[in-house]
Predict the structure of MFS family permease.
Amino acid sequence: MNAPHAGPTADEKIIDETSIRYEGWPIVGVCFLVATFAWAAGFYGQGVYLAELQRVHGWPASLISTATTCYYLFSAVLVVFVSEAIRTLGPRRLLIMGIIAIAAGTALVGQVTSPWQLFVAYALIAFGWAGTSLAAINNTLGLWFDKKRGMAISLALNGASCGGILGVPLLVGAIGKFGFPATSIGAALVIVIMAIPAILIWVGRPPKRTLPPVDAFATTPAPAVQSIAQMRRAAFGSLSFWTIAVPFAMLLIAQVGFIVHQISFLDPIIGRERASIAVALMTAMAVVGRVLFGFVVDRMDQRKAAAVSAISQALALIVMINTRNEAALFAASAVFGFSVGNMITLPSMIVQREFSAAAFGVVVSLVTAICQFTYAFGPGIVGLLRDAFGSYAVAFYACVALQIIAAVIVLVRGKAPLAA
């Protein structure tokens, strides 16, 4: 007969996640900083790299977009194993390795002189992206947070939007003043100098939580703990899992495809500088959207919110396709951006609600990997359609179609086999 759990041992803690002094909140700040650099260099920066490589080398958009697609595909494979990497290396080592890789790739991308070198630089950024982006941040914060996990993730991922707000204008401005090669090296140094000390100082050993009391007279044995492989098999057999993964994969194909090509699309209409401002406005609205959404997310239907967000982005793209008015383009960029952050955050929040806490890290890594594997084709598809038809109209209408279909699929619900 098992004795009841009398209380926390010396290695366990009673955790109050609502306390301002809780050790998990500095981890949120570190993840915010890591997300800022990850999205600036590995996501929003892709649009800057595309436009600059076209200008410097005259390479076609389809070639550079194909390199971007390969980058996302490779990192998608790596993302699947983020849960295992954190269990083996610990969050501190994984984040540091990710920062070093993304900085090295960023430095190299400005030095390339032939297409094969671009693929090598992007492979390095892929390793960094896997170790610093959505799956890594979700898994890291999952070690420190349970009840406040949704809030912690939402706050940390505002760093992703800051990566666009600050990163794109700074990159474009620095390139104009110092040139692309010097700017890429400078950006890499900033990433390393700011991120690694923060990780070393604040990201330590995650707390051991108190165990729930054990009933000494219980006749039903406790359920066996599932292995990671069992959790993956159960997720793959769940309708709930697929109605998260499939629609968000479609939404992110459209979203990433547009974002990577946004500067190239707007450049001939309003100029490079104003195009970078439009990107900054879009990402600023992503912060506003995520913060406002955070106040009501626990009281609303998250799947319906995803559908509404998808339709709003589709309408914004339709406006951008059919106008050359600068004010309208800025307004449409703002509307599109309002849901950009939530498209990144919502899958984790739906998983948090529909799957168990034990399965959270594994399921989020799977959803992230599937979404990234598919949205990796977004920049390439948009680039190919743009080259084939001579403008972005057909490419962006294809994005609109994906968003409308995804809005329908995400409303389909299923019972999660790993639900709490």
Notes: The chain has two domains: 21-205, 228-419. Residues 210-223 have pLDDT under 50 and may be disordered. The chain has 18 helices and two strands. The longest strand covers residues 12-13.
